[in-house]
Amino acid sequence: MTDDLPGQHIARRPLHFIWIIDVSSSMEGDKIGQLNFAIRESIPAMQDVAKDNVGAEMLLRAVTFSSGAQWHVAQATPVDQFSWTDVTAAGVTDLGHALRLVTEQLKIPPMSSRALQPVLVLISDGYPTDDYQGPLKQLLDEPWGKKAVRLAIAVGDDADLDVLQRFIGHPEIKPMVAKNSATLVKFIRWASTAVVKSVSQPVSRPTGRQDDQPQVPVPAPPPPHGDPDVW
Hints:
By secondary structure, the protein is an alpha/beta fold. It is built from six helices and six strands. A six-stranded mixed sheet has the order 3-2-1-4-5-6, sandwiched between helices. Helix 1 links the parallel strand 1 (13-22) and strand 2. Helix 1 runs parallel beside helix 6 and helix 2 packs parallel to helix 3 (133-141).
Protein backbone atom coordinates (compact mmCIF):
# COMPACT_ATOMS: atom_id res chain seq x y z
CA MET A 1 0.00 0.00 0.00
CA THR A 2 1.31 3.44 -0.82
CA ASP A 3 -0.05 6.88 -0.07
CA ASP A 4 1.58 8.47 -3.11
CA LEU A 5 -0.80 10.75 -4.91
CA PRO A 6 -1.31 10.62 -8.66
CA GLY A 7 1.21 12.90 -10.35
CA GLN A 8 3.39 13.10 -7.25
CA HIS A 9 6.40 11.73 -9.11
CA ILE A 10 7.44 13.44 -12.34
CA ALA A 11 9.25 11.41 -14.98
CA ARG A 12 12.22 13.64 -15.71
CA ARG A 13 13.37 14.00 -19.30
CA PRO A 14 17.10 14.29 -19.96
CA LEU A 15 18.47 17.53 -21.36
CA HIS A 16 22.00 17.08 -22.68
CA PHE A 17 24.20 20.19 -22.76
CA ILE A 18 27.56 19.85 -24.53
CA TRP A 19 30.36 22.40 -24.75
CA ILE A 20 32.50 22.05 -27.92
CA ILE A 21 35.62 24.04 -27.12
CA ASP A 22 38.52 25.16 -29.27
CA VAL A 23 41.73 24.77 -27.25
CA SER A 24 44.17 25.40 -30.10
CA SER A 25 47.32 27.46 -29.51
CA SER A 26 45.61 30.69 -30.58
CA MET A 27 43.42 30.41 -27.48
CA GLU A 28 46.43 30.64 -25.17
CA GLY A 29 46.66 33.35 -22.55
CA ASP A 30 43.73 35.55 -21.60
CA LYS A 31 41.26 33.82 -23.92
CA ILE A 32 41.57 30.37 -22.35
CA GLY A 33 41.75 31.87 -18.86
CA GLN A 34 38.52 33.80 -19.34
CA LEU A 35 36.82 30.80 -20.92
CA ASN A 36 37.66 28.65 -17.89
CA PHE A 37 36.46 31.41 -15.56
CA ALA A 38 33.21 31.86 -17.49
CA ILE A 39 32.29 28.18 -17.46
CA ARG A 40 33.07 27.84 -13.74
CA GLU A 41 31.03 30.98 -13.05
CA SER A 42 28.06 29.68 -15.05
CA ILE A 43 27.66 26.40 -13.16
CA PRO A 44 25.79 27.78 -10.10
CA ALA A 45 23.41 29.62 -12.43
CA MET A 46 22.79 26.41 -14.40
CA GLN A 47 22.07 24.60 -11.13
CA ASP A 48 19.49 27.26 -10.27
CA VAL A 49 17.81 26.79 -13.67
CA ALA A 50 17.68 23.04 -13.05
CA LYS A 51 16.02 23.53 -9.66
CA ASP A 52 13.29 25.61 -11.29
CA ASN A 53 12.58 22.95 -13.95
CA VAL A 54 11.99 19.73 -12.07
CA GLY A 55 10.71 17.90 -15.14
CA ALA A 56 14.11 18.08 -16.85
CA GLU A 57 17.33 16.36 -15.85
CA MET A 58 20.20 18.59 -17.01
CA LEU A 59 23.29 16.59 -18.01
CA LEU A 60 26.57 18.32 -18.87
CA ARG A 61 29.56 17.26 -20.96
CA ALA A 62 32.46 18.96 -22.75
CA VAL A 63 34.65 18.06 -25.70
CA THR A 64 37.84 19.93 -26.56
CA PHE A 65 39.61 20.10 -29.90
CA SER A 66 43.06 21.15 -31.04
CA SER A 67 45.39 18.59 -32.67
CA GLY A 68 42.65 15.97 -32.59
CA ALA A 69 39.77 16.03 -30.11
CA GLN A 70 38.86 14.39 -26.85
CA TRP A 71 36.16 14.37 -24.21
CA HIS A 72 37.15 16.73 -21.42
CA VAL A 73 34.05 15.60 -19.50
CA ALA A 74 33.07 12.29 -21.05
CA GLN A 75 30.26 11.21 -18.73
CA ALA A 76 26.90 12.95 -19.00
CA THR A 77 26.99 14.48 -15.52
CA PRO A 78 23.98 15.84 -13.59
CA VAL A 79 24.43 19.57 -13.19
CA ASP A 80 24.29 19.39 -9.40
CA GLN A 81 27.32 17.07 -9.45
CA PHE A 82 29.24 18.90 -12.16
CA SER A 83 32.57 20.63 -11.57
CA TRP A 84 34.91 22.21 -14.09
CA THR A 85 38.59 21.33 -14.52
CA ASP A 86 40.43 24.07 -16.39
CA VAL A 87 41.56 23.39 -19.96
CA THR A 88 44.83 24.51 -21.53
CA ALA A 89 45.59 25.53 -25.12
CA ALA A 90 48.01 24.09 -27.70
CA GLY A 91 47.96 22.69 -31.23
CA VAL A 92 45.80 23.25 -34.30
CA THR A 93 42.00 23.39 -34.81
CA ASP A 94 40.55 19.96 -35.63
CA LEU A 95 36.86 20.83 -35.45
CA GLY A 96 35.81 17.88 -37.60
CA HIS A 97 37.21 15.42 -35.09
CA ALA A 98 35.21 17.06 -32.30
CA LEU A 99 31.98 16.92 -34.31
CA ARG A 100 32.45 13.19 -34.88
CA LEU A 101 32.76 12.62 -31.13
CA VAL A 102 29.58 14.57 -30.46
CA THR A 103 27.67 12.78 -33.23
CA GLU A 104 28.41 9.38 -31.70
CA GLN A 105 26.82 10.50 -28.43
CA LEU A 106 23.67 11.83 -30.13
CA LYS A 107 22.74 8.48 -31.66
CA ILE A 108 19.95 6.36 -30.18
CA PRO A 109 21.37 4.75 -28.10
CA PRO A 110 23.10 6.22 -26.11
CA MET A 111 20.61 9.10 -26.39
CA SER A 112 17.08 8.50 -25.17
CA SER A 113 14.19 8.94 -27.60
CA ARG A 114 12.28 10.83 -24.89
CA ALA A 115 14.98 13.43 -24.27
CA LEU A 116 14.53 17.16 -24.61
CA GLN A 117 16.41 18.96 -27.35
CA PRO A 118 20.15 18.85 -26.74
CA VAL A 119 22.01 22.15 -26.52
CA LEU A 120 25.37 22.26 -28.33
CA VAL A 121 27.60 25.31 -27.83
CA LEU A 122 30.65 25.69 -30.08
CA ILE A 123 33.38 28.12 -29.00
CA SER A 124 36.26 28.90 -31.38
CA ASP A 125 38.67 31.67 -32.32
CA GLY A 126 40.02 30.38 -35.63
CA TYR A 127 39.61 28.35 -38.79
CA PRO A 128 39.23 24.55 -38.90
CA THR A 129 42.44 22.77 -39.89
CA ASP A 130 40.76 19.47 -40.76
CA ASP A 131 37.74 18.45 -42.82
CA TYR A 132 34.71 19.62 -40.85
CA GLN A 133 32.07 19.53 -43.61
CA GLY A 134 31.71 15.74 -43.71
CA PRO A 135 31.47 15.43 -39.90
CA LEU A 136 29.01 18.34 -39.77
CA LYS A 137 26.78 16.59 -42.33
CA GLN A 138 26.93 13.42 -40.23
CA LEU A 139 25.91 15.40 -37.15
CA LEU A 140 22.94 16.94 -38.97
CA ASP A 141 21.94 13.56 -40.40
CA GLU A 142 21.32 12.29 -36.87
CA PRO A 143 17.78 13.16 -35.68
CA TRP A 144 19.06 14.56 -32.38
CA GLY A 145 21.88 16.42 -34.11
CA LYS A 146 19.39 18.01 -36.48
CA LYS A 147 16.94 18.96 -33.74
CA ALA A 148 19.58 20.21 -31.29
CA VAL A 149 19.76 23.88 -30.39
CA ARG A 150 23.16 24.72 -31.86
CA LEU A 151 24.88 27.93 -30.79
CA ALA A 152 28.33 29.35 -31.53
CA ILE A 153 30.58 31.91 -29.87
CA ALA A 154 33.45 33.46 -31.81
CA VAL A 155 36.36 34.52 -29.61
CA GLY A 156 37.92 37.63 -31.16
CA ASP A 157 37.91 38.81 -34.76
CA ASP A 158 39.74 35.88 -36.36
CA ALA A 159 37.13 33.13 -36.05
CA ASP A 160 35.57 31.80 -39.26
CA LEU A 161 32.02 33.09 -38.91
CA ASP A 162 30.88 31.19 -42.01
CA VAL A 163 31.85 27.90 -40.37
CA LEU A 164 30.12 28.87 -37.14
CA GLN A 165 26.97 29.84 -39.07
CA ARG A 166 26.97 26.48 -40.86
CA PHE A 167 27.20 24.75 -37.51
CA ILE A 168 24.21 26.73 -36.23
CA GLY A 169 22.26 25.97 -39.41
CA HIS A 170 19.49 28.47 -38.74
CA PRO A 171 19.23 31.82 -40.55
CA GLU A 172 17.78 33.70 -37.60
CA ILE A 173 20.45 32.59 -35.11
CA LYS A 174 23.84 34.20 -35.64
CA PRO A 175 27.25 33.51 -34.09
CA MET A 176 27.98 35.68 -31.09
CA VAL A 177 31.27 37.57 -31.40
CA ALA A 178 33.13 38.14 -28.14
CA LYS A 179 35.80 40.78 -28.73
CA ASN A 180 36.80 41.05 -25.10
CA SER A 181 36.82 39.00 -21.94
CA ALA A 182 33.71 40.61 -20.44
CA THR A 183 31.63 39.77 -23.50
CA LEU A 184 32.89 36.19 -23.57
CA VAL A 185 31.81 35.72 -19.96
CA LYS A 186 28.41 37.26 -20.72
CA PHE A 187 27.77 35.06 -23.78
CA ILE A 188 28.83 31.85 -22.03
CA ARG A 189 26.57 32.60 -19.09
CA TRP A 190 23.66 33.38 -21.43
CA ALA A 191 24.09 30.13 -23.39
CA SER A 192 24.31 28.20 -20.11
CA THR A 193 21.19 29.66 -18.53
CA ALA A 194 18.70 31.53 -20.73
CA VAL A 195 18.82 29.00 -23.56
CA VAL A 196 18.77 25.99 -21.23
CA LYS A 197 15.80 27.47 -19.37
CA SER A 198 13.90 27.90 -22.64
CA VAL A 199 14.59 24.30 -23.67
CA SER A 200 13.87 22.75 -20.28
CA GLN A 201 10.52 24.41 -19.61
CA PRO A 202 8.32 22.74 -22.28
CA VAL A 203 8.72 19.27 -20.73
CA SER A 204 5.50 18.04 -22.30
CA ARG A 205 6.64 18.95 -25.83
CA PRO A 206 6.66 15.92 -28.18
CA THR A 207 10.04 14.64 -29.40
CA GLY A 208 9.01 13.31 -32.79
CA ARG A 209 9.41 16.39 -34.98
CA GLN A 210 11.72 15.93 -37.94
CA ASP A 211 12.15 19.52 -39.16
CA ASP A 212 15.41 21.36 -38.65
CA GLN A 213 13.92 24.42 -36.96
CA PRO A 214 14.26 24.88 -33.21
CA GLN A 215 11.26 23.45 -31.38
CA VAL A 216 11.51 26.11 -28.69
CA PRO A 217 12.10 29.85 -29.04
CA VAL A 218 15.75 30.77 -28.56
CA PRO A 219 15.93 34.00 -26.57
CA ALA A 220 17.90 36.92 -27.98
CA PRO A 221 21.51 37.01 -26.77
CA PRO A 222 22.68 39.93 -24.65
CA PRO A 223 24.25 42.88 -26.50
CA PRO A 224 28.06 42.90 -26.75
CA HIS A 225 29.89 44.57 -23.90
CA GLY A 226 30.87 48.17 -24.56
CA ASP A 227 34.41 47.93 -23.16
CA PRO A 228 37.39 48.22 -25.55
CA ASP A 229 38.77 45.07 -27.11
CA VAL A 230 41.31 43.41 -24.81
CA TRP A 231 42.41 40.24 -26.57
